[in-house]
Amino acid sequence: MNTWLQFLIQHSAVLDAGNDVIGFAGDSPAPSAFVAPLTDLGLIAASGEEAAVFLHNQLTNDVEHLGPSEARLAGYCSPKGRLLASMLTWKAGDSIMLQLPRAIQPAVQKRLQMFVLRAKVKLNDVSDTHVSLGLAGHDVAGLLTQWFPVPPAAPFGKAESDAGILIRMADALSVPRYLWVADPMTAQAAWPTLTAKLPPAGAALWRLSEIHAGIPRITQPTQEQFVPQMVNFELVGGVNFKKGCYPGQEIVARSQYLGKLKRRMMLASVETIDARAGMEVFSAADPDQPCGMIVNAEKNDAGGMDCLVEVKIAATEQSGVHLGSANGPVLRFGSLPYSLPDAA
Q1: What separation, in Å, do the N-terminal and C-terminal C-alpha atoms of the chain show?
Q2: pLDDT tens per residue across all 344 residues of the chain
Q3: 33 near 173, Cβ under 8 Å?
Q4: Which residues fall within 8 angstroms of residue 190, CB to CB, at 6 or more apart?
Q5: Which CATH number fits domain 220-333: 1.10.3720.10, 3.40.50.300, 1.10.760.10, 2.40.30.160?
Q6: CA–CA separation, 164 vs 183, rounded Å?
Q7: Cβ atoms of residues 275 and 323 within 8 Å
Q8: What are phi and psi of 91, to 5 degrees?
Q9: Buried b (16+ CB within 10 A) or exposed e, 92-110
Q10: Neighbour-count burial for 245-261, b at 16+ CB within 10 Å, e otherwise
């Protein structure tokens, strides 16, 4: 167990069997204001003079022209155009950082390493030398000015200081959100000040905020299930259609330009706590065939779960959509913070 986890335990953190922070002793924080240690995320540092070119040729977004004051979502696809991973990318010094779920990081890093060949690139797992904090709240920007004098104002803007990297993430439920990546000592020093203003929370609350921001997270159960557009990845800035080739690029481009998309990701809630990524959903009009799949799901404060669901658009228009089977709990669809042009 690393020093950051030991520090969090001393400050009332509750860990699961995998050493992820699932909460803190005391009251449950609200989604509108919290600080969460994102121990479920891993971090790869790609360094070397050809790192940008290498990643540009592997990922769905433009890495060669990634600016110092921005971050970008990106996907890593199979040759069939199906997402193996979704990640957040940014530059830090001479490295390009790739943040993705820790559970799939080793396999994704190993796969990327297979294609390095003679390229002047090194891929290093730096998860334990960096701490990621997710912060949400209307007053967070002001709180962070003691470490970052000018916090980024627009989503996916990035600021850098001696305290690390600060990225403005997409808002959720009209609440500003920030990702702070720091070294463990900086995070430990800042923790008392942060938690004096923001209640500490487990990573699940950050994942719930990602759901309400409409940002999909590819996990083990959903690897190789979705072409990027099926989970709205191009709508949240994760795909660049003008860049060069990458694995699966032809299929991704074909999905974009040949006809109207018949499947999309939507926001839904369900009155059960049994929803999980990879579960199939069914339409009452066609009970024998699944019409979609849960992308992400987290508990809400109403006793159920909020989900991102990849689903046939027609199924949501014809009849009820149910979790697990045509007789399962009904999914109640809500509004994403961005429009779905195909569903208009």
Answers
A1: 50
A2: 789 999 999 999 999 888 889 899 877 787 789 999 999 999 999 999 999 999 999 999 999 999 999 999 999 999 999 999 999 999 998 999 999 999 999 999 999 999 998 889 999 999 999 999 999 999 999 999 999 999 999 999 999 999 999 999 999 999 999 999 999 999 999 999 999 999 999 999 999 999 999 999 999 999 999 999 999 999 999 999 998 899 999 999 988 887 678 899 999 999 999 999 999 999 988 899 999 999 999 999 999 999 999 999 999 887 799 999 999 999 999 999 999 986 54
A3: no
A4: 147, 163, 182
A5: 2.40.30.160
A6: 7
A7: yes
A8: -95, 140
A9: beebbbbbbbbebbeebbe
A10: ebbbbebbeebeeeeeb
10 Å CB burial of residue 301 (0-12, 13-18, 19+) is: exposed
Closest CA to 90 of 160, 31, 34, 12: 160
The side-by-side arrangement of strands in the sheet containing 158-161 is 34-37, 131-136, 175-182, 164-172, 158-161
DSSP helix/strand/coil, 74: strand
Phi first, then psi, for residue 37 (nearest 5°) are -70, 125
- The one-letter code for the residue type at 147 is W
Cβ atoms of residues 267 and 212 within 8 Å: yes
Domain boundaries, the chain: 3-213, 220-333
Other C-beta atoms lying within 10 Å of the C-beta of residue 313: 18
The class that CATH gives domain 3-213 is: alpha beta
Look at residues 92, 240, 83 and name the one whose alpha carbon lies nearest to residue 179: 92
Contacts of 263 by beta carbon, 8 Å cutoff, 6+ apart: 230, 292, 310, 311, 312, 313
- How many other C-beta atoms can be found within 10 angstroms of the C-beta atom of residue 300? 18
Structure tokens at 73: 């979502």
Separation between Cα atoms, residue 338 and residue 165, nearest integer Å: 27
Write down how long the chain is: 344
Q: How far apart are CA 78 and CA 169, in angstroms?
A: 27
pTM for the full model? 0.95
